[in-house]
Amino acid sequence: QVQFVESGGGLVQPGGSPRLSCAASRSILSIYVMGWYRQAPGKQRELVAGISSSGITKYADSVKGRFTISRDNAVNTLYLQMNSLKPEDTAVYYCNGAPDDNFLFLLGSWGQGTQVTVSS
Description:
Mean pLDDT: 96
Oligomer: single chain
Largest sheet: 6 strands, mixed
Helix content: under 10%
Order of helices and strands: EEEEEEEEEE
Number of helices: 0
Number of strands: 10
Distance between the termini: 39 Å
Strand content: over 45%
């Protein structure tokens, strides 16, 4: 089972621009699609961004134009550049991988995630 460790979160000001990182315990070169999820209190976990092995990206409407997902297969790391943060972006952010675009079969177990709190 591949493990993912998220980092880069914390308390940020509205409009801030942190970058989240997701380090994998093994090569992600063969993982077809990697994604960032988030879960706010009282809410279901939701997929906010995904990137295929060929670099094709998709974003939830709530973050489109503000977040950028990328992957560096050479260092087995997934990134999420977050810009223009809003209080409603406050959540625990997780990463995972899947063999197809449906994200129905996830390759890693859920870790601790990284908490992003947007507040002045």
